[in-house]
C-alpha cells in the first residue's frame, strides 16, 4: 500500500507534470472506483490543473475554478504516468485499469488496481474536506507544527497497542502497515506496547523515529519516477516484509505476527527484549 512517503513523491512528480496543463478527458473504466456523482467527471474536462496536494494518503488534483479530483490508492492501487497515452478509449474489462486522465499534451496517467478486493477510490468534489476520509484525518506527522508534545498529547489515554495507534488515520495521517513497523523498529519498541504507557524518554524515542523514518523515506523517494516508487519503497525497508532475514541492526532473525488480512514484522532483540511475540493465527492452528 502506498503510504505517506510514496504519496508525497507522487505529489512532487505530478506537480511537475500536471500543473499548468489542461485535462481534456477523464475516462472511467471501472465505475466502482467512482465514489461521487456530482459534480460529474466531465466537470474536470477543459480545466487547468492548478495544484497537487497530499492529505495523508490521499492525492488531490485542484483545477482552475473547478472541482478537485481526489484519489486514494488503497492497498493495491497505483498511478502509471504515460508521456503518450494510447490512441482510442480504453476497453472496459477484467484488467487492472480503473481510470484514465488525458492531458492536452497527449500525456496523462492511468489509475490501476490489482487483485480482487477493489478499494481504489476516486472522488470529484468542490472541496477535499467533502471526502469523508480526508475530513477525519489526524495531523500530518511531517507538518512543521507536529512536535514531540503533539505526539504525546495524541497518545495520552490511548489504550490501544502502538502498532494500531500509529496506523489509525484519524490519530496520525499517512502511516500504514509498512512504516509503522519501520518506526517501531527504529524506536526499539514492541508493536504490542500500550500507547498510553510510554514514559517521557520513550515518547522522545518514538517521536524521533517517526520523524526520521518518514523524512528519510520521502528523501529516498524524491525524484524517483512514479513507476519505480514501489520497488524503491521495498528496497528501503529494514524489517517490514523481511521475515526470516537478519536484522540490519543486531543480526537477530526478523519475526512475523500474522492477522486475518495483514502481518507485522519486528526484531525480538531490538524491540521485545529477545522474546518472540505470540502469533495468534499460528497458535490457533497448532491447538
3D structure, described in words:
The protein has 287 residues and is of the alpha+beta class. The protein has nine helices and ten strands. It has helices spanning 4-18, 132-135, 148-155, 162-167, 177-187, 200-221, 229-236, 268-271, 280-286; strands at residues 22-28, 47-55, 58-63, 68-72, 77-82, 97-103, 108-113, 121-125, 255-258, 263-266. α1 runs parallel beside α6 and α5 packs across α6 (200-221). The chain starts with a helix and ends with a helix. The model is unreliable at 282-287 (pLDDT under 50).
Helix content: 25-40%
Helix and strand composition category? alpha+beta
Q: Tell me the β content.
A: 15-25%
Average pLDDT works out at 93
Brief synopsis:
30% of the residues lie in helices and 21% in strands. With 287 residues, it is α+β, with helices and mostly antiparallel strands.
What brief labels describe this structure?
287 residues, 8-stranded antiparallel sheet, 10 strands, elongated, disordered C terminus
Write the layout of secondary structure elements.
Layout: H1 4-18, E1 22-28, E2 47-55, E3 58-63, E4 68-72, E5 77-82, E6 97-103, E7 108-113, E8 121-125, H2 132-135, H3 148-155, H4 162-167, H5 177-187, H6 200-221, H7 229-236, E9 255-258, E10 263-266, H8 268-271, H9 280-286
Antiparallel strand pairs: 1-2, 1-6, 2-3, 3-4, 4-8, 5-7, 6-7, 9-10
Helix pairs in contact: 1-6, 5-6
Amino acid at each position: 500500500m502506498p503510504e505517506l512517503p510514496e504519496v508525497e513523491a507522487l505529489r512532487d512528480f505530478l506537480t511537475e507534470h500536471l500543473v499548468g496543463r489542461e485535462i481534456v478527458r477523464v475516462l472511467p473504466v471501472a465505475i466502482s472506483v467512482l465514489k461521487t456523482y456530482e459534480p460529474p467527471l466531465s466537470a474536470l474536462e477543459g480545466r487547468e490543473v492548478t495544484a497537487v496536494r497530499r492529505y495523508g494518503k490521499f492525492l488531490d488534483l485542484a483545477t482552475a475554478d473547478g472541482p478537485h479530483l481526489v484519489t486514494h490508492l488503497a492497498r493495491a492501487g497505483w498511478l502509471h504516468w504515460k508521456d503518450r497515452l494510447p490512441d482510442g478509449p480504453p476497453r472496459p474489462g477484467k484488467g487492472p485499469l480503473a481510470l484514465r486522465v488525458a492531458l492536452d499534451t497527449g500525456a496523462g496517467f492511468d489509475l490501476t488496481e490489482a487483485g480482487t478486493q477493489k478499494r481504489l477510490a476516486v472522488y470529484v468534489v468542490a472541496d477535499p474536506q467533502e471526502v469523508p476520509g480526508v475530513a477525519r484525518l489526524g495531523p500530518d506527522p511531517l507538518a512543521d507544527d507536529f512536535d514531540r508534545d503533539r505526539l504525546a498529547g495524541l497518545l495520552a489515554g490511548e489504550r490501544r497497542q502502538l502498532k494500531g495507534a500509529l496506523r489509525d488515520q484519524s490519530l496520525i495521517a499517512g502511516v500504514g502497515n509498512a512504516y509503522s513497523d519501520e518506526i517501531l523498529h527504529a524506536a526499539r519498541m514492541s508493536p504490542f506496547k500500550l500507547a498510553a504507557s510510554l514514559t517521557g524518554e520513550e515518547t522522545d524515542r518514538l517521536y524521533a523515529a517517526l520523524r526520521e523514518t518518514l523524512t528519510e523515506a520521502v528523501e529516498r523517494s524524491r525524484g524517483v519516477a512514479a513507476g519505480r516508487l514501489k520497488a524503491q519503497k521495498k528496497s528501503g525497508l529494514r524489517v517490514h516484509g523481511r521475515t526470516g532475514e537478519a536484522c540490519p541492526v543486531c543480526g537477530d532473525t526478523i519475526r512475523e505476527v500474522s492477522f486475518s488480512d495483514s502481518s507485522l514484522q519486528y526484531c525480538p532483540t531490538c524491540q521485545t527484549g529477545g522474546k518472540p511475540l505470540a502469533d495468534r493465527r499460528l497458535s490457533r492452528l497448532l491447538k
